Amino acid sequence: MKTLTLVAALATSIAFSASAMPAEIDTDGDGMASLSELQVANPELNQEVFNEMDTDGDGLINDEEMAIAVELDILADPDTDA
Is 68 in contact with 53 (CB distance < 8 Å)? Predict the structure, then answer.
């Protein structure tokens, strides 16, 4: 079931991935979101959840990881819930 959910989230992420990381989140302009950048809009976000979102383990959230987190309701959609 978890695999099915991730596949559905990946399919949904294609639309999100086509756009750049919102500037309201990506305050340093590197195209990625750090934990501290995400915590501005999501103060309840902690390191443990961030690590689960960071599927490639690079310490940053890219567009695809963000789309999956939005699809799984881990984060609010920055394009519609701002």
Answer: yes
Q: Cβ(56)–Cβ(50) under 8 Å?
A: no
Q: State the residue range of the domain holding 9.
A: 2-71
CA angle 23, 72, 48 (to 5 degrees): 80
Report the 10 Å Cβ neighbour count for 56.
Answer: 10
Looking at residue 74, the DSSP 8-state letter turns out to be S
Cite the beta strand spans of 1-82 per DSSP E. none
Would you state the pLDDT for residue 8? Answer: 53
Q: What is the pLDDT of residues 10-66, one digit of tens each?
A: 554 444 444 578 999 999 999 999 999 999 989 999 999 999 999 999 999 999 999
Spatial neighbors of 29 by CB under 8 A, at least 6 apart, are 23
Q: Does residue 35 belong to any structural domain of this protein?
A: yes
